[in-house]
Amino acid sequence: MSTLRQPIICVLGHVDHGKTSILDSIRGTAISKKEEGGITQRIAATEIGINRIVELSDGRVTKNIFKIPGLLFVDTPGHVAFANMRTRGGALADIAILVIDINEGLMPQTVESINILKKFKTPFIIVANKIDMISLFRKTDKLPLPEFLKQQREEYAADMETKIYNIVNQMYQYNLPSERYDRISDFTKSVPIVPASAKYGIGIIEILLTVTGLAQKYLSESISKKEGDGKASVLEVRRGDSLGLTLDSILYQGTFKAGSKILVNTSHGIKETKIRAMFVNASNRSTRVIEKSSVSSAAGVRIVLSDSYDVLPGTTVIEINPGNEEEARKELTDETKIKIELAEHGITLKADTLGSLEAIAYEMGQKNIQIRSAQIGEISKRDLIDVSTLTDPMDRILAGFNVELSPDAKSSVMAYDIGIVTSGVIYHLVEEIDKWLVNRKNAMEEERKQGMPVPSKFVIMPDYIFRAAKPVIVGVKVMSGRIKVDDNLIREDGKYAGTIKSIREGETSKKFAEAGSEVAVAIDGVTLNRQIFPERPIYVDINEEVVRALRSNALDEATMGTLEEIIKIKRKDNIFWGTKA
């Protein structure tokens, strides 16, 4: 029988729903509080041994029920971190915990997390956190959930049930059946929901036992301890530490030893280096790290390199020897190939890691936002120049996730007519991109409308005559279309009827006026009651070349009727007017 390693667990969910608080409750510490005398931040992974689980259960479970040595929690919560932990064929995490505020239900980042979990086909449980925020909550000692509920008022229990089934209904919209964990008979068919309060430690042991049970029963093949060359996934690249450049990583296969040769992916390609030193957390409750000469999977490990290479987060570190170097190089080459479907037109995307790029691209696809270019790295001046020279104005947008503008880009950004959107939260980034695209489209439509004459008709209102000439200033009612400044005008007989020089509505000067408007206009080149007359229709002159374009532009019925009237006027002099391609 093969030995099982610790399952790797990632915690996902919406901001402020309690991801870090759940991790703190599991660890029994507050990660935000520095240990007295501590000088080094902890590594971004926590090993929860079986003894800790037994301790949290207050003796309700014993060590002999466990087949795994413990659980390895990735401390960097979020679906982007999850996406960055990649191996060949999918996500590195064996199982995930999706934290949902039971009082708020599914939120934008929750949906993003669900999408990425489905994409990678990663099993997960739901923690319905903040049950202490439900009205009539009665504080109790740490109890098993069923006993906790027995001590609550009936109204509280009923309210909690309603909120859980709200989550069940929301999950069903994503074709994911779910149910409270203690009511599920077949965990392959439903996502378990564990009610919890990170604040009071309620439901924490149920979370651990549910995850452990699922891992032991359904994941034994994927968490079998694999011997062979050591492999780790880089979570974070740290610079400026007293140790120099270090890699916070998850070792998921084999063993790393100090002095071992390794290959890493850098911004300048694959590089060979050595492990100079390695550190692990002193304990799950400590921010202190200790040096180790050998570390076996699965584990969180801080790797100090012999060389200061610009290693790419979200890539793999592979131990090499004469027998595997060629295969290792091929694996590292393959992982840097960006697996994103690019289009001829679309946004230009920059991100901090490969995993981020792919996670964002997935969300963009859900919103039908196309990507023309996707790259890792900061936004440079070269990016500004490239995007600003694109032919289609709708393509002139740069989106950056977890990246900054380079100094030369910051100093020259005002010189380029492009959109720049940056954020460290995917749904914020997508929202801002969507908003920019809508605004740009509307602005282009306004520009098009202002540039192209629209078939329009208006009449001078006899009660609003302000000046009869040089220029004529009168009140008009726009019957159809859209009149604008600089429109040339014709009468019913096709003769010139002046040029609109200004439009005012009350004290406001306007560039145009839509059908139904009553506005004051100044008309140059004619005299009232000589060339133009009150209550007689006046038309905006249309060039023959734009008639075909206007007909295919989905004009409203009244404007289309006015276009036909103008065509009839023009054909009095030329029976073929408007028929040219």
Word description of this protein:
The structure is a single chain. The protein is of the alpha+beta class. The protein folds into four domains: 211 residues, 3-Layer(aba) Sandwich (Rossmann fold); 105 residues, Beta Barrel (Elongation Factor Tu (Ef-tu), domain 3), CATH 2.40.30; 105 residues, Rossmann fold; 114 residues, Elongation Factor Tu (Ef-tu), domain 3, CATH 2.40.30.10. It is 27% helix and 30% strand. It has 14 helices and 31 strands. The strands form seven sheets. Strands 2-3-1-6-7-9-8 form a seven-stranded mixed β-sheet, sandwiched between helices. The protein has a six-stranded antiparallel beta barrel with strand order 10-11-17-14-13-18. A six-stranded antiparallel beta barrel has the order 23-24-30-27-26-31. The longest helix has 26 residues. The protein is elongated and about 105 Å long. The termini are far apart. About 2% of the residues have low confidence.
Based on the model shown, name its key terms.
581 residues, 27% helix, alpha+beta, Elongation Factor Tu (Ef-tu), domain 3, 4 domains, six-stranded antiparallel β-barrel, seven-stranded mixed beta sheet, Rossmann fold
